[in-house]
Amino acid sequence: MPAGASVATGTGTNSITVNFSASAASGNITVTGNNSCGNGIASPALPVTIFNMPAAAGAITGADLVCAGTNNVSYSVGAIANAVTYAWTIPAGASITSGANTNQIVVSFSPVPGLGVFTVKGANICGNGQVSPDFNVTMVASQGAPVVTASGSLLTSSTATGNQWYYEGTGAIPGATSQTYTATITGWYWTVVMGVGCPTLESNHVYVLFDGQEELYKLNFNVYPVPNDGRFNAVMKSANVDRISILVIDMTGAKIFGRDDIPVNGQVEQEIDIRPAKAGLYSVVFLGKDHSVVRKVLVK
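Now predict its structure.
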C-alpha cells in the first residue's frame, strides 16, 4: 500500500477496499498470492495518485470598468493549490473566448450596459475548493466626453463612473476616481473617463481660484476701471524682469480670455476685452512661475 493507505475490507482475498488517510501520499499497490508453500511472484504495480481538496481561490484581477460589447478582456486568479481545473462564473451575456478551465481567461462582453460579477473556484476529482471573493464589473455604454462644472472648490463630472481627476501641476491625482473632487489649491483641473474598450475621453478644463494664496514675488497687480462694460486694463509692476500670464475666469470656472508670457520689467499695462460679457463678477488671474494673484472685476 502507499503510505497512509490501509486495507478496510477483503484482507487475504483477491478483492479489497482501501481507506486513504488525510496524510496519504501517492504510491503503488501490489499483491502476491500465498499458500503453504510460500509467496508467489508479486503483481505489476498499480500506481495510485492522491489528490487533496483544492485550496481557497484568491482575488480575481482584471478591468472593473469596460465598455459594453468589448472583446478580448483578460481576467486571472493566482494558481490554486491542488486545482486541476478552474470553474468560472461570469456576467450574464458575456462569454469566455479562451482559457476556459484555466486560471486566466479572455472574455467578450454583451453589448448591453449593466453590472456583473466574476467568481472562480478550483476543482479536481475530490470536489470544489472555496470560491473567490466577488469581482464586480461595470459595463458602460459608449458616451461623449464628460463635462465638469464647478461650485466653488467642488468639481463635478457629468459621468458617474470611470473618472480619473487631474491637476495641471502633478497630473493624475492618486485616488481621485469619484464623480466629484474637491480642489485644494489654485489651478486647472479636469477629468478623464477611462474604461477597457472605451475611448479615452477628456473633459473641459476648469480653473479653481483660492483667494489669499501667496502673491508673486515683488509684483503688484491691479485692474481698472471697476466696474466696467467688459473692457478694462491689467497693470503689472516689477523691479525685475519677469514673464507673466493673464487669465480671465467667468463665474462657472471657464476661461474666457488668456494671454501667455507677457514680459514685465517696470510697469506694463495689458488691455483686456471680454465683450460681449454677461454682467457679473469675473476673476483676473496673474500667473508666474511659482505663484498666483487673483483680482476681481465687476462687469455691468
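The radius of gyration is 36 Å.
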